[in-house]
Amino acid sequence: MRVITMGGSAEGEAEAAHYEAELRALPESTLPRSSGLPVFDLCLIGVGDDGHFESLYPDREEIADASGRWVLAVDMKSPPTITLSPAAMMSSKKVLVASAGVSEKYPMGKSEAMKKAIEGMEGPRAFPASPQIYGMLPSRRGGRLLPERRLPELSAEAMRR
């Protein structure tokens, strides 16, 4: 396992460029590439109540990023955050979305967000966690995780909607 740390500044673009440069510096024997994108064995991500994953939020331009960049800056909070681009995440051998948890504000919590993705009620511009991925969903009993389930498959064209 190799850990790459962020630089620690409040400059989103600089942090994204630094992190991407560190990833690109890894030899292909460590981090294979396909069509110019990194191929991670597994991309494990969480999903928010509103359907955001990583720092990719509904209806934001980063969802449809086609720049070829591996890491993006997202200037939505202060300081800005960085995230893998959708293309970099989806080029992984397997993407696993773990969704669990509720709050006072969202009593149905992430279960409701994941239900929308599974039932195909939302497109990826409104609900970015719905491309071809696998999900680990909590059961209604004690937060146990259910076996992985493939979420609806969406084309690259659908990602731009």
UniProtKB/TrEMBL annotation:
One of the GO BP terms on file: carbohydrate metabolic process
Coiled coil: none
InterPro entries linked to this entry: 6PGL (IPR039104), Glc/Gal-6P_isomerase (IPR006148), NagB/RpiA_transferase-like (IPR037171)
Domain Glucosamine/galactosamine-6-phosphate isomerase, chain residue ranges per copy: 4-129
Region Disordered: start-end pairs: 138-161
Residue ranges, compositional bias (Basic and acidic residues): 146-161
Signal peptide: none
Pfam families with a match to the protein in the record: Glucosamine_iso (PF01182)
PANTHER family linked to this entry: 6-PHOSPHOGLUCONOLACTONASE
This protein's name: PGL3 protein
Classification lineage: Eukaryota, Sar, Alveolata, Dinophyceae, Suessiales
Gene symbol of the encoding locus: PGL3
